[in-house]
Write a structure and sequence with these properties.
It is built from three helices and 14 strands. By secondary structure, the chain is mainly beta. The strands form two sheets. The chain has a twelve-stranded mixed β-sheet with strand order 9-10-11-12-13-1-2-5-6-7-8-14. The chain has a two-stranded antiparallel ribbon with strand order 3-4. Strand 7 and strand 8 form a beta hairpin. The longest helix is centred in the N-terminal third of the chain and has 18 residues. The N terminus is likely disordered.
Length: 281
């Protein structure tokens, strides 16, 4: 009889429990960013990036005097060079019903060099990219080296910061810089170039192995939205400072400026350009 009562009580308890409304537990939803979602950038930084990209769409050519300083933090070696730089943006040329895209081009010319505390001497070194090959001319050795782009490579990568052989900061796109770098800005300091804003680019971990730089610092003109100074640190521990002055925009530049013919008696070297290769004076 007691056993029967016990089973009856247990049955009533189970029925009562079943009759109670189920307790609703909060559901934790973890939202993971899509791989295609652009990384977040603070509004002030994006404003600088967008202004640079907008300037790149209206600026067809750039010519400027160039001051170049390279300091190797491991060896303590230092060199200074002076010269000029010329740049022509990507062009769309319509021929009949066809539209042809011409890759951006640049020319860097150095007149002088000063090694450490030595004297400044004349030493001409040239770099010319015609949209297909990068040609390096060194008067001291009387050599012309033509670096050929890797097969199936994007000719525009030569101009992209962190991928090109030289840091040519013109014509950059917001999407590219945000994709490959953590982009930030800081308030203007007294030591900054006049009428500029500051931009810091640090490679994102996911892309660090594909880029040839460890960090980039840029000072952008608030008037032209073009860089006036850029400091890079590459994987060889070289700190390179390039300063642009007396900048002229949208001046007609002859096409042959971006090609360097081989002078009579000079040695011609042809070799492939490695992806992300740095090429220095």
């Amino acid at each position: 009889m007691k056993l029967c009562i016990t089973f009856t009580v247990i049955g009533l308890l189970i029925s009562a429990a079943a009759a109670q409304p189920a307790t609703t537990q909060p559901i934790r939803v973890i939202v993971r960013p899509s791989p295609t979602t652009a990384p977040a950038v603070d509004p002030e930084t994006r404003k600088i990036l967008d202004a640079m990209e907008a300037a790149g769409k209206t600026v067809k050519t750039v010519r400027a005097d160039l001051s170049y300083k390279a300091f190797n933090t491991s060896m303590g070696d230092e060199q200074y060079r002076t010269g000029w730089v010329a740049y022509q943006s990507k062009q769309l040329i319509k021929i009949g019903e066809k539209t042809i895209t011409k890759s951006p081009m640049f020319r860097v010319h150095f007149d002088t060099v000063k090694m450490g505390k030595g004297k400044t001497i004349s030493r001409k070194v040239d770099y010319a990219y015609d949209g297909k090959n990068l040609t390096v001319s060194k008067a001291k050795n009387k050599t012309i080296t033509r670096f050929q782009l890797p097969p199936n490579s994007n000719a525009d990568d030569v101009m992209q910061l962190g991928k090109g052989p030289m840091p040519i900061p013109f014509g950059q796109k917001t999407a590219d810089m945000v994709k490959y770098f953590v982009c930030t800005t800081l308030p203007t300091r007294i030591t900054d170039p006049k009428d500029t804003v500051y931009l810091s680019l640090v490679p994102r971990k996911i892309h660090a192995k594909d880029l040839n730089t460890l960090n980039i610092h840029m000072w952008i003109s608030t008037k032209t939205h073009l860089p006036v100074k850029i400091v890079t640190k590459d994987k060889a521990k070289d700190n390179i400072t390039s300063t642009f002055s007396k900048t002229v925009i949208n001046e007609v530049i002859k096409k042959d400026l971006f090609t360097i013919p081989k002078p009579l008696g000079w040695k011609l070297i042809v070799q492939p350009m490695k992806s992300g290769q740095n090429i220095k004076p």
